[in-house]
Write a structure and sequence with these properties.
G6P_DH, Glucose-6-phosphate 1-dehydrogenase, 2 domains, 9-stranded mixed beta sheet, alpha/beta, oxidoreductase
Length: 482
């Protein structure tokens, strides 16, 4: 199967922080792939910007090395690199001062879309926005892309929103969450709203519970300084997992327009019940034979920051009242996996007798590593000898369904092209971010008030035992992390 590629209009994209890890690992490779696929037009231009003194050729060498390091066998060949590098420039700029801004202004065109990607630490979001305004670089066709973390709490998120609003209107601000660019996440909306099959069942009457799991095998690594100030709640739940929850629980929007979709997501956040302390389990991984503990990795022996969190969440609206949503995420777990599992209720009566084996119908949406969907249903086990029931999986992996040769775009490939198009559907709105923090802040405040400490768990496990009790008390169990 051949993917349909729709080229975008010519653009100037400035990547602030172009020498950093995110730009080298994700942004620049994504742009090169879009150019290779014919979606980035030949007139498209990319300008790397950072405080590091580099020539254009030195920057090209750095990017070429990044392609080899992060793309491996799929790295572009010499001919493609040469074409792509013709459109790749570099400028040294001081985000906190005046140096480089006039030079940047002289390189930008007035008749194309201008996009500025803030691939920098959050402390520079405000100064960059101010610099763009102060040096007259903002046009009606200007967009800015802001990476997370978008604030550290409600107060800081509001302050940042106000700073950005001083120079840009809301239609120009793209708060990026790469989870929303994943093919399976968008297919979740297609499955829900393009098929009548599930919509009549997508409510508390037929859904027993929902589990959202984002598990990682790695520790905090080089992010220790940042992570120890944020933890799993701020780093994952407030943004990535909140977005997944909203897409699962939202009402059908009146159209697939950016604000129509985001309005419905906002309603879900407003309907979230406050989380009581007994509905939360925090954990922190210890050390193993060949692995350092969390405290050792962040170099803080008495760290009280969670690397794992599990929550039971309720939604007080007509669709979901009474159906719990269980969220969990953590580092140094048994396997790397991200999935959403919708477990449906059992039939009200079994005609096959009380002793017949029974397993619930479960719709599993896999985000990684093998993107796809699985629906577990009950069938008759083949063979004579009576009616024996067996559960089987109706499995659709994108690699199998669409062909192994088809390239499924990385989330950043899709999202950056959406920025150029001016499509904000998969980006967070300011009020959505603030509502998420308004729900999250009281949970964190309760930990601080009670001096709650994370429960220890072994690296390579499924998390702390207390998380098992959280769901077992409701007569349910977590899905295996694998």
């Amino acid at each position: 199967m051949v993917a349909r590629v729709i080229p975008v209009e010519p653009f100037d994209l400035v990547i602030f922080g172009a020498t950093g890890d995110l730009a080298r690992r994700k942004i620049l490779p994504a742009l090169c792939r879009r150019y290779a696929e014919g979606q980035m037009p030949p007139e498209g231009r990319i300008i790397g910007a950072a405080r590091t003194e580099l020539s254009r050729e030195d920057f090209h060498t750095m990017v070429s090395e990044a392609f080899d390091e992060f793309l491996g066998a799929s790295a572009p060949d010499a001919a493609l690199r040469a074409e792509f590098f013709e459109r790749l420039d570099y400028i040294t700029i001081d985000a906190l001062g005046d140096d480089g801004w006039s030079d940047l202004s002289g390189r930008l065109r007035d008749d194309v879309v201008r996009a500025f990607y803030f691939s920098v630490g959050p402390s520079l979001f405000g100064p960059l926005a101010t610099g763009l305004g102060r040096f007259g670089l903002v046009t009606p066709e200007t967009r800015i892309v802001v990476e997370k973390p978008f604030g550290n709490d409600l107060e800081t998120a509001r302050a940042l929103n106000q700073t950005l609003a001083a120079h840009f209107n809301e239609t120009q601000i793209y708060r990026i969450d790469h989870y929303l660019g994943k093919e399976t996440v968008q297919n979740l909306m297609a499955v829900r709203f393009a098929n009548i099959l599930f919509e009549p069942l997508w409510n508390a009457r037929f859904v027993d519970h929902v589990q959202i799991t984002v598990a990682e095998t790695v520790g905090v690594g080089g992010r220790g300084a940042y992570y120890d100030k944020s933890g799993a709640m701020r780093d994952m739940v407030q943004n990535h997992m909140m977005q997944l929850l909203c897409l699962i629980a939202m009402e059908p929007p009146y159209s697939f327009e950016p604000d129509a979709v985001r309005d419905e997501k906002l309603k879900v956040i407003h309907a979230l019940d406050p989380v009581e302390p007994r509905q939360v389990v925090r954990g922190q991984y210890g050390g193993g034979a060949d692995t350092a503990s969390y405290a050792e990795e962040v170099e803080t022996p008495d760290s009280n920051t969670e690397s794992y969190i599990a929550l039971k969440v309720g939604i007080s609206n007509w669709r979901w009242k009474g159906t719990p949503f269980y969220l969990r995420t953590g580092k140094r777990l048994r396997a790397r996996t991200s999935e959403i599992a919708v477990t449906f209720r059992d039939p009200p009566h079994s005609i096959f007798g009380e002793d017949a084996p029974w397993k619930a119908n479960i719709l599993v949406i896999r985000l990684q590593p093998d993107e796809g969907m699985t629906l577990k249903v009950m069938i008759k086990e083949p063979g004579p000898g009576g009616m024996r029931l067996k559960d089987v999986a109706l499995d659709m992996s994108f690699a199998d369904a669409l062909g192994e040769d088809m390239h499924i775009p990385d989330a950043y490939e899709r999202l950056i092209m959406d920025v150029i198009r001016g499509n904000q559907t998969l980006f967070m709105r300011g009020d959505e971010v603030e509502a998420a923090w308004a729900w999250t802040d009281p949970i964190i405040a309760a930990w601080q008030k009670t001096a709650d400490t994370p429960k220890p768990y072994d690296p390579g496990s499924s998390g702390p035992d207390e998380a098992l009790k959280l769901i077992h008390l409701d007569g349910r169990s977590w899905r295996e992390i694998r």
